[in-house]
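dumping this here before i forget
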Amino acid sequence: MKNCFIYIRVSTDTQATEGYSLDNQKRACKEYAVNKEYHPKEVFVDDGKSGRTANRPEFQEMLKKLKDKQAECVIIYKIDRFARNVTDFSRVRKEFIEAGIDFLSVMEGDLTNGSSLISNIFASVAEWESEVNSTRTIDALEQKFRGGWQPTPPPIGYMTVGEKNERKSCEPDPYTAPIIKELFELYATGNYSLLELQDWLSQKDIVSKSGTIIGHSVINNILRNPFYYGLIRWHGVSKIGKQKPILKKDLFDTCQYVLAKHRSFLIRKRKHDFLLRGFIFCDNCEQRYTAEWHYDAHKLKNRGGKIGYYHCQKRDRNGCSAPYVEIEDLQKQVEDQFKKMQFSQKFIEMVVVKTKEAMTEGRSYLNNQRMQLVNRKTSLETKRNKLEDSLLNEAVDKDTYKRLHVKIQDKIYAINDRIEELEDKANIDTNLIEEVLSFTRDIYNTYKQSPAFLKRHYLRFFFEKLYVNNCKISKIEPTPIFAILRENQEVIITDNQLKKWNEFRTLSLLGEEIEYSEIIMEQTRELLS
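structure:
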């Protein structure tokens, strides 16, 4: 009995429901092979591959084995499962004939000895159908976009909804959506690298479809995807879609700022984490200052054997004469910048109102997320119980039971951890609100008593750059938001400090049209982040 290869293909889920499923094709081809007295030696399956090109992995593997004379016949289910391109079909058919390989189709019969004209007509029809289907698909995708839905599958954090033969839409996934939102919140602080977020997502059981850890490039794409705040894009056109946003645009914009600064002080990890890294610049050459420790156990015995300095990076290398300045001295100068600053009473009252709103919103959000997690946990526990019953009823084997049981139990453990994190977060948010209120009422003492990581948040709110000349802070570039607050007299600065602030006027960066209420909201969000 001669050997034959069977080649089958399905490109879409729709085709699988229309009688072209892989199982149906395989069964029909094997029965046909037996009836024609061929032995099915191997079945080649291209799942989800287009028939408009011959560059399909299993198809190419089959051709390679045919050249090695491993079979005398190729059986397909239908020409359009084999090729939807007349040129490719004719070329491969000719190669089969020249090599003495029989070419049979379950639906069209003998393609080797029959008329080439008839075979090419079948292939032409298949190609025409492919073009029609392609046009219909493009029209359907464009119609979906015009209707306010993203034509492509939704990203991580969303799940597709819609029954068979219905237009598919999406909604936030109860489990992954809160985690994606928290991913943005963590990255917006500037304290996390993509590699750290990679491990963090893995701990939350957010993995790729293959079950492996999500790559840092995928995380980068997530952080750059405007879909999460409601924007959809298709062929160069963008608009707000109908999907429910996972996060607000201002949080997304903050992450874009951090991504743009990924080589700056925000997320780089160093052996020594100096408080003012990234803020201090040389007034002579505008180069960023760096810092380092100098060690001498004998000479610096009274100072713990070391002394730290900030200095211009061009010092002693490219002609900059700016002297070294001691770390403690410069950090004390920065601390003194807060001494004669205070927020207006009106601003403080507005912050109190906003923090109360934030607390109420935060409680509601956390309670909602906790309820969703509890529901998901209950669903998994039900699934686990059914699996245990199946084992007792001998409906599943022991190995399958162990594998599935461990998988379900791990998800339950992950949800328990997530619930505990939400409860801890509620306490943290309360502490942050207390910190914000304390900061608005007494800027200097709050900054002075804060730990280093929180000091950096305060510095990031006030200062873009601080310039140093001859070991002294010579001028200050405020952040755009803080510049506007100062222009609106919501931050009071004494005259001797005001001279340094007036070196820069950055109100124009954000435009005159910015409303006062938006500034207050931005202030609150920055301090809460």
